[in-house]
Protein: Ornithine carbamoyltransferase
Amino acid sequence: MNHFLDIHTTDPAALRAIIDNAAAMKAARAGQMRGAPDDDQPLAGRMVALIFEKPSTRTRVSFDVGIRQMGGQTMLLSGSDMQLGHGETIADTARVLSRYVDLIMIRTFDESVLHEMAEYADVPVVNGLTDRTHPCQIMADVLTYEEHRGPIKGRKVVWSGDGNNVCASFLHAAAQFGFDFTFTGPAQLDPEAELIGLARKAGCKVQIERDPNEAVKGADLVVTDTWVSMHDSQSAKERRHNMLRPYQVNEALMAGAKPDALFMHCLPAHREEEVTSAVMDGAQSVVFDEAENRLHAQKAILRWCLGV
Ligand code: CP
Ligand code: NVA
Structure:
């Protein structure tokens, strides 16, 4: 069963095939209307459940549109409206959904929910973000980097800010795609040591640098994300902002990276907090390409999951 649960648990050859297939599918429909069907209709006859236990704009719309382009049907489900949110076990929900749909995409809180869903479902399960990781986002980001600058292998990626779920999937990708990764942020918000260890064990150069200006030297790509994620307590907001302010990505910080460095943010962004508008809207920013590429990358992920 081809579940897409995380980047580090997916075979590197499969990851490469997904990126290449996404690029090819994107090229094949260049210039077409968003709602135009793909010629081959690989998901014809397939029904996909899209479960959201947290808010979403990009994940929700890109999966829905991508599946429809491929000829499949979608069912958007809010976790709180399902029995899942009212005491039915994850295992039973997985068994039931497997009788109705051909694939389950879930955005949830604790990653144990995703893993239990995958264990008990008879159909592929895709991770649409958990408190711990966001693999679909980083597949879109690798596609975006390579579209603009060629192979990401051997490049230097710098993450500035909170060592959160998106950062974790970047670290997983560093190991699988072979790029160097520097984290710059306050020690309290470092990525988990286990993640860093895993990437280093895979031969990847991972550095922790507290000074953001030092960190960005030689960077090919600078990335950041919100200072307060959906799973973080709102009461910690002020404390987090105070800790993270020195790690804002602004023009001065970008000037320290390579002149052709790109800027990425998974969005939604909080302008003038983790990133300034000058950078978001500047020539180095590819944030809206990333958003578009969620669509193409996920279409390729779904095809890999379903073997179509
Ligand atoms: N980047 C991303 O996953 O956005 P949404 O929360 O809008 O889905
Ligand atoms: N780190 C953010 C990503 C949102 C797409 C969050 O989990 O809220």
Strands lie at 47-52, 73-78, 103-107, 125-127, 156-160, 180-184, 206-208, 221-224, 262-265. The chain has a mean pLDDT of 97. The pocket of norvaline (ligand 2) is lined by residues 129, 164-166, 225-226, 229-230, 266 (CB under 6 Å).
